Amino acid sequence: ANPDPNNPLTKSWFIYTAEIGREIKDQVRIVNLTDKTVRAKVFTADAVTTADGAYTIKEESDKRDIGAWINLTENIIDLQPKETKIIDFILKVPANAEVGDHMGAIMVQEAGRLEEVKVGGVGVETGVKIAVRVGSRVYLTIPGEIIKNLLFKIFSWEGKDNRFYFNLELENTGNSRIEPRGEITLTNILGQEIDKISIPHREVFPKDTIVLPVEWEKYSLLWARYGGLIAKAKVSYADKTLEQTINIFTVPWIELGALLGLIAIVVFVRKIKRKRV
């Protein structure tokens, strides 16, 4: 509700820097974009990353970090069509908070309801609560000795569902979130550059490990399917660059099977010809 004019990201996210023991007072704007009256639940949560580094949130009941430090003045609100409401909240940094970055979210969802489905033309109450959640990220940095340290642990590749992926295992051993950038360069055995792939943007939370999959979309090209290739991955963050190199050799099983089948047919035909002679 109160974005910082000097930081465009605060139009969507809450971004703070605060010392231990400090209280931050702010507001969140909730907007009903529908044409119906809605009862909504507003709550806080801690953030986590998925296995591949995507930002997501924990369950509301599992609040141990910044999600537990935020107190909302209201948790259930009624909104008329197109109505906007402002909710006050206080973020208090506890005495036992660790220096570094803390991530969470303020979430809102329509109050749970039972969804009706039809079975054989008859309406049946499923007993499953359907809830769509939307929210705004909350980033808090507690000043102190900020440690940014990323480990590039494993660089590998795999073929899956007729697609080709590189996998980068990254571990953040520091106390600050890291947003690595980089690319994978592919060269043939003669050293000629074949392709360059950008590494998708992800966040690695403190004390967290992710395995980031990077799809190689040009894998189906003939020069990529025959012979060996060299893949070099560069991952950069802060003023550091990490590198790993792997060799790739793929076997085109379909083409190989067809070739072996053709050879078998040729051998069979020659045997028949010899018998006739």
List the helices and strands and how they pair.
Layout: E1 14-17, E2 23-31, E3 38-49, E4 55-57, H1 66-69, E5 70-72, E6 76-79, E7 84-92, E8 100-110, E9 113-119, E10 122-130, E11 133-142, E12 150-160, E13 163-172, E14 181-188, E15 193-198, E16 208-215, H2 222-225, E17 228-237, E18 240-249, H3 253-276
List keywords for this structure.
277 residues, mainly beta, 6-stranded mixed sheet, 52% strand
Note down, in words, how this protein is organized.
The chain contains three helices and 18 strands. With 277 residues, it is mostly beta strands. Strands 1, 3, 4, 6, 8 and 11 form a six-stranded mixed sheet that branches. A hairpin with a 2-residue loop joins strand 12 (150-160) and strand 13.
Main structural class? mainly beta
User: What does the average pLDDT come to?
Assistant: 86
Strand count, sense and barrel status of the largest sheet are: 6 strands, mixed
Order of helices and strands: EEEEHEEEEEEEEEEEEHEEH
Radius of gyration: 27 Å
Low-confidence stretches: none
Give the helix level as a range of percent.
Answer: 10-25%
Entry summary:
The chain is mainly beta and 277 residues long. The chain contains three helices and 18 strands. It has helices at residues 66-69, 222-225, 253-276, and strands at residues 14-17, 23-31, 38-49, 55-57, 70-72, 76-79, 84-92, 100-110, 113-119, 122-130, 133-142, 150-160, 163-172, 181-188, 193-198, 208-215, 228-237, 240-249.
